[in-house]
Amino acid sequence: MNTVHWLSPGDPEQRTGGYLYNARMVEALQSRGVGVVMHSLEGPWPWPGVNPGHGKVLQDIPDGSVVIADGLLWPGLSESDRSFLCQRCSVWVVVHSLLDMEMTPGSPSSVAAIEMEALSQAHGWFATSERTANLVCERLGVESGQYVIPGTFPSRHHEGPQRNHILNVATVTERKGHILLVDALAQISDLDWTLDVVGALDRDVECVQRVRERIEKRGLTERIRLIGELDESGIDGAFASADLLVHTASFEAFGMGLTEALVRGLPVISTPAGALDGLESSAVDIVPSEDLDALVCSLRTVLADRDELKRRTVAAQSLSFPDWPEQAEHLVQVLGIESEGFSIDWLRQREPYDHTARSETLVRRLGQVLGPKPVRLMELATGLGSGTRFVSPRLMNQQHWTLVDHDPRLLARLSQEMDVRLPDLEYQVLEHDIRNLQGLKGHSIDAVLTQALLDLASDEWLVSLADWLTQQRMPFLASLTVDGRVEWTPSDSRDAEVQHAFRTHQTFDRGFGASPGPLAAQRMQQLLLDRGFDVVVEESDWIIPPEDVRMVGAMLDGIAWAASEAASHADVSTNMVSGWYRDRKSSLGTCGLRVGHIDLLAIPKPLVE
Ligand SMILES: C[S@@+](CC[C@H](N)C(=O)[O-])C[C@H]1O[C@@H](n2cnc3c(N)ncnc32)[C@H](O)[C@@H]1O
Question: Model-level pTM?
Fold first, then answer.
């Protein structure tokens, strides 16, 4: 399990550029199979003052983790918190913008120096635009820096200009230049246009007041609306009804609204911004920042001539931008982490629990059904062969095993493990994708076994597995299918909600398509009963005691990332999940858990004695 810990300056669900970048990147990483736990550190960032709560959050991050700290937060953490984290973890800083470019009241005058010093302390950094990366390199005196720009969502193209409706997507603060925009529009009041400003109105209320007064003074209250912040569907609607995006920030490190407009085929007039660097397209007109005349001229050119606006719309529709999955892939490369399927460490770590939990009775019963003759057995999704190591010594027959998995990395390691731990086993490994069961037809087998697989599979695949077993009339032993029961000791009032999100995650596509998840064993039992098998099930729960801190910690990491990945689908708050994770982590050594599993043995009727 490859878990990244992402440090957010306060509530990660805020809807400004940096927070949206974090949230969307986390979602894309998770979809790619990288576990990410988001931690929210409270305080008036970037200068929160001493806050003992921060140290507590950082302590709970396991040693050796990859940590991504938001650049708004990193310089504001205390020196001791930063060094504590850097000594234990591999820390990267995501630099959305430079603090002095975004100067907030109360910032020290040496902010740029403090920021660079803090960045040098981390193991690495990446910016979210090339222009920010270049500025950081200049300041640090290094030659090159890495950057991972935001992705985009595939979007429907906007239908083409309708009514000169302008959209501005920016939090209303001084730096975003709304007063300049109002003044520029006042100079083209002879033309037909309207403007919606979409962005938070509570970050700088004095600025919002000044913007309102200016709108009134210029007599534009009928034409300009300050809409405030919108959710995802609201913002989609705002883009869909606009004909032009205008952006007037005095400095813009990237400007996600710009690519979001262009990807929808909406032309843009903007001051320089990271999103537009190197982009040569007639869909974009870049005007110098704080240059009223240039802005008026550009607006008039576009809005006075419907054909010009149409030409720019067509040009915007021909552009393409990377999507979030591509950018998540890029970040995985920058960080040098590979989400490599099932981790070897994890499979080794769970094996003793697997073997303690599994039903001996069901293996004995299988042995009776097979009788004393030599047998050919196949283990599906064998991983490192743990299931075979449990079953083989408990069967009295002469055996030949075919161990099947699609991951060559695991199969290579499996041979090493078997040579040491079960050297007399007669077996062959088969690299095969078991989604194609028909491809296994050529093998003559007396029984099929698997361990810790069924809860990953889709309903469709379980049906084809049941059909295949029926055609071949083979006994089937499927062990350790997770059934969704998790009981923590001591319990916590949030366990049930976390568990609900975790169970929801188990239904996600984990390689086979959407899955019955916790209901997989029950479903398989029914499918096999319907096909005339005799089916026996037994509980095979893991019982993990508090003293096994490593195993409890690994379960905690796994449950927390799955629950936070599924939180929005399960209607559960990610903040609640991270709070639960933090509290459980701090009680490591005193809390244990029971994890529900089911073993299932199915025998085709004529074989039943
Ligand atoms: C949870 S692990 C269990 C491994 C092993 N049975 C054990 O109990 O230690 C799931 C296994 O399924 C394998 N797997 C997942 N999808 C597969 C596929 N489409 N074809 C073959 N193996 C697959 C993985 O590589 C991994 O080894």
Answer: 0.59
